[in-house]
Sequence to fold (218 residues):
Amino acid sequence: MADGFKRRTPSRWGEGGALRDEILAAAARLLTESGREGDLSLRAVAREVGISAPSIYLHFADRAELVATVTQRAYERLAAELREAREREAPNGPRAGLQAMTRRYCQLALDNPKLYRLMFGIERTVRSREEMASHPLFLVSQVWLEAVAACRGDGGEGRDEKRAGDMEGEGRDDQRVAWLLWFSLHGVVAMAMSTPFETDRHAMQEMADDLLELALAG
Fold:
């Protein structure tokens, strides 16, 4: 056995889920450390967990499936956090809900830089365009779209009175606004993370509010 290898205590019957979670956590750590999906090896993941490399194949078919699962979990967590922030402010109206989302997005990124890097900072293996629609990135995109559509009065009310062409046009416009807001927030967060200064969170919150106003006014 190679130096530095620490064998994991074998799981008891019925504890396979715990090992699977450990494999996913180890893969996430190694991905954020290397910054490149292509540098991740199943052997390194196995060493990190303390198991033999073939044991990983009991839970994941290959590296691609392992990376896809790690990514899926990260985006699902972000989408759930954003929806929760919106729902808490829902009684105060759709704009308040969207504002809560923008602020929560910035807070999550700053509080969890490694998780954020895992989603947006890793150099990915290029996927085919056919695989694009199934990428978990669209889970988060849908959350932004729903919140923006509600603010712009396109959350479903009065749709029966509109022509189909009008609804399709408004839907595309809502998507444009949602992406404009999200991508702009990402730029602000990425800049804050890349500078060697402590982030002024209050200033970032104000900037997020400004971006929201600009996006909805456009």
